[in-house]
């Protein structure tokens, strides 16, 4: 199950489509109607077809309701792009963008040491990531995020 926004659904699709390469796997991806077309395009792509095991299947299960983006639009809220500071434009152009896997601690440490802005790429909830990146003793004094 996944929300429809690409930043979250991409990791689910990657796993789901990889599982199709194994025998006797029935993959079901559940999300909002707005994601159906993308799911069908991905699962029917030539790249997936050449790797897919003949005994495995892909099914998109629709979750009723509005996607996050649709809910924002309905409420008249700004588009749900939520720019992160490393993506903010400066007068000189776009800042340097470093994308780090949340569990590649050495990469996070390198960014901290070099005082570089970075974005964490991880399909996990922000709390799970932030909790692991905080110095352990600070957990006693405040709750991250």
Report on this model:
This protein has 145 residues and is of the alpha/beta class. It folds into two domains: 60 residues; 50 residues, no CATH class. Helix content is 37%, strand content 15%. It is built from six helices and six strands; from the N terminus they run H-E-H-H-E-H-E-E-E-H-E-H. Strands 1-2 form a two-stranded parallel sheet. The protein has a two-stranded antiparallel ribbon with strand order 3-4. It has a two-stranded parallel sheet with strand order 5-6. The longest helix has 14 residues. It is extended and about 50 Å long. About 3% of the residues have low confidence.
Quick summary of this structure?
This protein has 145 residues and is α/β, with parallel strands linked by helices. The chain has helices spanning 6-19, 36-43, 46-51, 68-74, 105-114, 126-133, and strands at 26-31, 57-62, 89-90, 93-94, 99-101, 119-121.
Whole-number total of structural domains: 2
Mean pLDDT: 77
The oligomerization state is: single chain
Strand arrangement, largest sheet? 1-2
- Determine the fraction of residues in helical runs and give it as a percent range: 25-40%
Strands, count = 6
How much of the polypeptide forms β-strand, as a percent range? 15-25%
- Protein structure class: alpha/beta
Q: Main β-sheet: number of strands, strand sense, barrel status?
A: 2 strands, parallel
